[in-house]
Amino acid sequence: MSPSTSIPIPDYPDQSVTLKDPALAAFLAWLIPGLGHFYQGRLAKAVLFCVCILGTFAYGVYLSGNSEVGYGRAVYASWAPADRRLHYLCQVWVGLPALPALIQANRVRNHKDPIGGFMAPPSLEDPKPNRPTLDNLHYTLNRYFELGTLYTMVAGLLNVLAIYDAWGGPVFTDPRKRRKDEDDEPASTEKAATD
Amino acid sequence: MQKLPTTISNTEELWYALLLIVAVSLVYAATRHELFRPILYHALRVAIWIVGFMLAIFIVLVAMDWWIS
Question: What is the ipTM of this complex?
């Protein structure tokens, strides 16, 4: 287990952030958004990250599906040349909630039927059980397929920030730089006045 | 009455941006501070920036829409 590190909070000299086992916390933050912060005892931020990131991802999963075609259709993994789903590279940063897509993609690659339609890759040829074609999905879901893709991708990218926060702590604004900016401002104003 | 430009008549789509703005502002602000009050103030500033940027793009699009039609 790596040692804890403590970072002072600028403008609050009596308080500091204790980063318990940053590597494990970063892994937990990837696994479930907020879990890394929960492990480090940073409960308020754990709740904030969990609600914001998982809420965004869940809404995206809901938007990109319906009872007819199944939910979470915008979250799927596919490396087929005809449908290289690069969006999943953003979505996978949400961690465990996006991993069913890998199981479904693996089943399809091994010529097995996916388990239900949830996060199953679309069929590249004719529609199959639980696997409508991408055209069918766009026709049925209309713009909600793209909205679901956007929401789930943004959730994944936001979790990258949360993972970094669990590993290295907040990226505080450098108080020396801020003070320098504040000091420079009146000086430049005075110079402009004398000119 | 003159028909509204397309950019104005489809504004209900913008409601989908609201949740994203809130989530992005809060998460970004939370990566810059540790305490809740500074996080909220920073999130508000980020949200205002995002909305301002969206408004600027909106104005450009409306102007282009009018100019083209």
Answer: 0.84
